[in-house]
Amino acid sequence: RFRATYRRLSTTLGFKERFSLTFFIVFGGALLGFCLSRLMMLAPSNVIHKTVAGEWYWYRQALYKPNIFMHIYMSIVGGTLASLQFIPIIRRKKMIIHRINGWIVFLTLGVGSVAGSIVARRAFGGDLNSETAYYTLGFMIGPSAMLGVFFARFRVNVALHREWMLRTVSYSASVITARFITIMARAIISAIGTYYAMWRCDEITFLLKDPQVIQESFPICVNATRPKRTFVPVHASIHQDPINFGSTYRITFGMTLWLAILIHLAGTELYINLTKSYARPVQAHRDSNSGGEKV
């Protein structure tokens, strides 16, 4: 009964390979689920109070504030709509919906990526490891999206359009995988108990506010003449105060994002090669019948 239901649903949605629906449910569902779970961040007050400890010190500043909101809003909209682009029946029966939705996804993810690249300078403490991972991801997403549009509008190659848009969305979702990996990574380094992250004194005084707590925990910051250039180590642990919790993100996120990028890079190429056997013949047949209609 399960197999029959699965095949019926797969056929209804237009999937040709038996495992395509499974991949769509797992990965498309994860992307959609993550975006829906972040809808609460559309409220500005939640961005202030629910970001990782220490982040709002930077995000409230003139350069970063509009960009963090733009990044959040555009990424949620683009990520939510992106799943629809990979339902074959929509593309075959309602091409106009596929086109309009595709442009919305392209523009929102593009704007969100640019805004995110600006914010990346200070994300999770501005660690160089995190910065380079974010910028590398941005350079992967941008050209992939442009190639996807190129093969849809100018070279009219549906198979290559599909491949590059799969890469675009998969690379964009690397941040989601990184967040799952960092849950484990933060628990591990907390159990080890010997990891520390560097914080500036001005970040600490902004976050803690209570002079007595600062005096007891970070006395060097009390009389620091140059708080923006005075750094102190903060223990990384998910079992202590918010500042210690924030340290776990600063320690782990760059590493986890690099791992996620590699996972998505390898996984996407594997999927593309597994499905290429039917995508290319379908493309050749479609081109011969349609005379090269633009996607």
Walk me through this protein's architecture:
The chain is mainly alpha-helical. The protein has 2 domains: 2-169 and 254-290, no CATH class; 196-235, no CATH class. Helices cover 73% and strands 3% of the residues. It is built from 13 helices and 2 strands; from the N terminus they run ααααααααααβααβα. The chain has a two-stranded antiparallel sheet. The longest helix is centred in the C-terminal third of the chain and has 49 residues, at 242-290. The chain crosses the membrane at residues 21-41, 68-90, 102-120, 132-152, 173-198, 251-272. This is DUF2306 domain-containing protein.
Index terms:
2 strands, DUF2306_membrane, 2 domains, 295 residues, transmembrane, disordered C terminus, DUF2306 domain-containing protein, two-stranded antiparallel sheet, transmembrane helix, mainly alpha
In short:
With 295 residues, this protein is mainly α. It has helices spanning 2-13, 20-37, 44-50, 55-59, 65-82, 88-93, 95-119, 128-153, 158-172, 174-192, 201-208, 211-217, 242-290; strands at residues 196-200, 231-235. It contains 13 helices and two strands; from the N terminus they run H-H-H-H-H-H-H-H-H-H-E-H-H-E-H.
